[in-house]
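dude i think i finally got it to work??
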Amino acid sequence: MTTEVACAGLPASWINGWLAGVGATILDSGIRLHWSRQGNVAVLSAADHDPVDLLARAWPDEYSVTDLPIGEHWQEAGELPRKVTAESFAERARAARSHPRSWTLSSSMTDLCVDRAGQVAHAPFDPTGTGQTKWLHHRLMKLHRRCPQPSAERIHESLAGLAVREKDNGLGFDQSRLGSQPDDSDRWTDPVVEIMAFFGLALLPMRGRGSDARLDRSACADERQRGWVRTQVREPRRFVWPAWSQSLGADGIDALLDVWDASQRRRWPLFGVHAAWRSVAYRSLARLDPTQGYGAERV
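look at this
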């Protein structure tokens, strides 16, 4: 018997909601995901189990969150600061090759695109930060301290959109965390959704042309994270993501993202896709405003 849970708190039109739905399939391989045609909300399912119970059991503990290859200090590998040199990245990648979550490196940066300073390119979903915000792994650990081992009931509240948000910047790219611009409101996020969204990044690796600006200053960098495409020439890349009707595990979602093309709308039904969105970047009102975030618009 298959148990399904409709997640009103994870609409496909919300980047973090979509990533969190995908992240559920990464956290437990027995969980499958599809999106309802009415409302386009995530529907998690599992055979012979409640998918929320599976999520609670699969929730990462403190050690597994600390022991991620993306960490600034990890095992015996060299330091990995925010500005990562190609040599540091290569050393860390070699050390993490057999780690089950080595994807945390490939989904946040790539040495297939190196700038004139010898630094690797970071992913759009690995945004910069100021002060205590720091970078992605720091943010994840901070979120985990707020929600180290949630019960199935607590997870269900988040999936239903009923959990109380906490004052935190989260992973740093969800535009819904931002309040009113004029009064500089605090940031508010749901740590459960944010942590699930982090694991959704497993299916979004970084890519590049293998260019090194130290060797050729005119080299075309063209770094890109999976799903980020140019919808118009000479415009910044935008993240484009689908909603599908068939229940898919992580491998199925991975395959779907390979074959689905947002620009080929007539072919969407062949892949079970019934809707799609693209990111809309936060536009700062001040020249030195470091705030980043992504909203969405229907394709």
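The radius of gyration is 19 Å.
im so relieved honestly
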